[in-house]
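Obj.: predict assembly geometry.
Materials: sequence records (below).
Method: joint structure prediction, all chains together.
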Amino acid sequence: MTDPVLSVRDLTVAVDTQAGPKPLVSDLSFALHRGETLCIAGESGSGKSITSLAVMGLLPTGVNVASGAITLDGQELTKLPERRMRDIRGARIAMIFQEPMTSLNPVLTIGTQLAEAIRTHDPKADAKKQALDALRAVRLSQPERRMGQYPHELSGGMRQRVMIAMALALKPDVLIADEPTTALDVTVQREVLDLLRDLQRDTGTAIILITHDMGVVAEMADRVIVMQSGRMVETAPVAQIFDTPAQPYTRALLAAVPRMGDGGGAAPITADPIAQLQDVQVSYDIHGGLLGRTTHRVHAVEHVSFDILAGETFSLVGESGCGKSTIARAITGLVPHEGQITVAGHSVPHDGLSAGPGLRRDVQMVFQDPAAALNPRKKVGELVAEPLVIHRIGTASERRAHVRDLFNRVGLSADQIDRYPHEFSGGQRQRICIARALALQPKLIIADESVSALDVSVQARVLELLAELKAEFGISYLFISHDMAVVENISDRIAVMYLGQIVEMGTRAQIFGNPQHPYTRRLIESVPVPDPAFIRAPSPRMATEVPSPVWAVGSGPARVVLTDAGGGHLVAEAAATDDAAVS
Amino acid sequence: MAAYLIRRLIQSALILLGVSVITFLLLYILPADPVRQIAGRSATPEVVENIRRQLGLDQPVWVQYGNYLWGLLHGDMGRSYLQRSEVASLIAARLPATLQLMLGAIIAELVIGLTLGVVAALNRGKPLDTSLMVASFAAVSAPQFVVALLLLYVFAVKLGWFPIGGYGTFSHLVLPSITMGIMGAGWYSRMMRSSMLDVLRADYIRTARAKGLGRMRVILRHALPNAILPVIAMIGMDIGIFMGGVVVVESVFGWPGIGQLAWQAIQRVDIPIIMGVTITSAVAIVLGNLLADLITPFIDPRIKLR
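Observations (raw structure tokens):
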């Protein structure tokens, strides 16, 4: 076997604290060979990102390599002075980051940022031409035009392509990709993963792929390192990790991964609807011109109709900007809408302002980011009691008792009610949000990407809790998610949204067992499968962009017509959604 | 862009109209009687009434205002009660000096404030940072006449580097500009420091470093243009603050600008001059803010004016 291009030996990275250095990564060793993809998998706090920053020499202040060695082609990096390390960064080891939306400088053009990377390491290069070549290599549409554009003019997927172009422009030996597709939609993730694989085949770059997604691991990795709390738990070729995981932690991690096809058939629910949406439309005006008149409209939700039955989990799936969260806001009466929405007997007012206490009591929401959804200056007990206070339910002592019950019910200890949100982990915070949503005994809980920000093992337990609560209290859920595997696991019925309209709707078995609409199929096929033996049918390499939902006043998207494909399985005619909007 | 500009100009005109109404009414209800000032203490009631009639001050307030506005629209700001000269030409003669002073002050506050802010941010938590922030606090809190006298004492009297007062050359401009800009410099150094610290934490700074760029290039090319954005919007407002400052600073340094003119007019209840200076200041403030807003899209491509 040839020498590894990068090797890490007994690496320990520690953060300075008042109580002395605290290790974030301990005794990590691995070797990376040319053309190889090494996946570092683990949940938050496992030290996988710190490892990559250590290799780049970009550790934040206060975090240092305590011991061990990082060697690139025989050259020790940890002791290298910053001046020499700079020559390696970007040229020989390049990195792409998780957040394409914020990883590019907003005030510089794409061309400037690309050319700068090239010129820094090769002052004589024809940087502009090389930059253009790099944009072509990542299959970005209209590369000449992109050069002069600013990051905000590009979508997330396009920006991640630019990041990849920037990283690979100088043909580095090692590419570190830190959760490169986590912030992207599933179809865009598919395109970016395909691209990385193609580019690696062409250039022979060794890739360290850091991810929490075992599906991505199965598709991309040659070898896998599983990390937990800064330590390597297990390392093995990818097939071995999935087939015969040696360590209990690896087994637990794999068991927690939601898989498609696990859902099983549930008895169809027959009950009265708890929520009814009839021809709901939501649009936002864009003003312009001399008098500030409305010139364009964002058609966020178009002619959407569906019922949520009592005791049912109804899921809305679709990619960012498809209008699924807007529907949630319309149902809660937080955004003006047209059409009819009725929830638990309350008609939702159209103005998005005057929803009465009855509606507010019967519909509760659980949001994506529990850290942002809890006021950091209030005790968690107060936060959970707040809905009761607002609706003037019970005395102070009754409320306190009720809050303690709720804490017990969501799997937290009642002793914790006097603590503050920052003292809890992400999963615990989401349980607090669920307790708060339960406080008023709502009939419908809207869970908007409620488990998306959680680690898989935590996610699995929160999903379990949601299922138990549904059985216990007969609550209905409107579950909004981009994660097809999670949706399949918990939903009774599903609506697939694209550009503000429902393109397919049916039971779980209908949608996942017999997807009819091309967009539904593409969504399902794009999901990475956590099985290295799975062979994906070759798909066209594309860089598609979802068309804009912005239309000039007086025009609008063609209305999608749903027809029954049997047993209440509604499918749109495919052609209607292919029209690109003009803005 | 054109539509934006036209809309903003119409808004500006409405603001100026509002300013003129409010100022006019305030001066009208003022207990000091300008006619008494002009006529002097020993004047007979007939003389007083005569002057009042001559100046048109016996008419109802809305007629007075209507006449004033009509004149204003024709570029006529009336005549000074006491000097009998055209207010417009009095202001025109003094405006260049004041504009010079304001420009000097803007440059002083930006150069001092932004530099110190960046230096403080790059030395965060170190003694240099702490001392700079204490200094900026002192700069923000110090009254202008104290700063003026201190600067005069040190740099004009003791060191003799700059003239004690007067107008004409660049060296005359230095101390008044710094006096007027020092408060803004204090604010800007604090704003710039926190803005810079925010930007240095941003993902794109990490990207820039991951490209292998040198420290100076990361700071100057990537951090600075982003950190400066919130500051730009503030410059427009400074002109308003300066308008208050010119009265003090011009008096202390004997600077022949509209601040002095206003000061004398206030003492003598010379209402046409007070009106004229107020309207001129309002125009400067409105235009300054408009200019700051028009510049922003050139620095931040995400901002579109429409």
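Conclusions so far: Confidence is low (pLDDT under 50) at residues 576-583 of chain A.
To do: check interface contacts against the pulldown list.
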